[in-house]
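User:
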Amino acid sequence: MALTDGYAATWGLSLYQAKDDPAHAGTVLVEATNLVTGFEAGAVPMTVTTAVRVQPDEVVQPPDGFWDPATTVATDGRTLALVVWHHVGPPGDHAVPCDGREAEPVVWRILVAPLDPRTGLLREPFTVFASGVSRDEFLLPGQGEGCVGPRTPRVSLSDGRIAYTVEAPQRAPSSAAAFAMHIVVRALPGGATVRTIAVDRTVVSLAMAGRTVVFSDSDDGDAVGDPGWAVRVSTDAHPAPSVLATGSQATAKSGYGQPPLVATDGDLAAWEVLLDSSITVSGLQAGAHLMAIAVPGQTCDLGGVDGGLVSLGCTTDAWAQGLVSGDQPIMPFVWSAAGGPYPVVGGPDMILNDAPMVAGGWLVAFGGPANAAWGTAWGFSTAGWSPTPQP
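Assistant: Predicted structure:
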């Protein structure tokens, strides 16, 4: 299962991104890229852009003006899911970061389209799979000046299933479960409901692999003095969520850590306390121990989990702490329980612009050699446990 901030998704050597078309309202541009392998000199990945017509006021850019682990695209290599939404009510004043209507309900839709397994490209047009309305005025803890308002669904796909969040119906606003949610797991295609996971707080991050769902939930950062969070796991065999870890804003080493971003491959779960660069891994079998991931002298971000490997994007502690300025290389690492962290490639010419993602047996690194185009992506096979560039 791969992740960055939810605004891109990978599977194998296919990369998917979505953005609003600045020239045409009601149009979303979905980019599907077949990646080159290794750092091939002069190689240019092939990108196919599809213009997807949505409703005139719908967009994919998440509603909050600051960082939020929202989902815009998600995939399992079979299906591509796209989340579009719009506010209820008249247009805002376009202020930054909040436009004056951030508390208005969010009307959202999840669109799905099948992928061609040979090319990774869209095989058929998008259709509406689910829709709903979000009303909770939630503030992500540690977000500072972020906008207080409803969030769009978190979405994850795996093995012909889709999991997504909805606000739980019929709850009293003054109750302890005022922000209760459901995680709905359904079959693709067809839409039959496999199970519904009840959560008492707002789900911040969601990941599914096979029959396993891992998620983080949090108190409202605008209503609780020291917002708490938890990482939980639910499976078909044991659908009631069990706790993997708990924490709060005050327990973060930085003093302002956000609720964790999560990833899983069904056997391992990993989570990163955001703004804190604290990454933890746990096996999902009974009696598994928590393991902290650390790269000496480096501050790392979580990229994803696949086949027992955890992908990381690391930079020097000095740069992360603001002690040095200028562009600093983000080094891609993989971690395994047997071998610890291992650099994918080395050298001072590596410049990445995000943590590498990993899914479907390939690790995807964004950036490359210093003379490469910024934002280009390369794929590395994860055969064995220490990837090397492929010829």
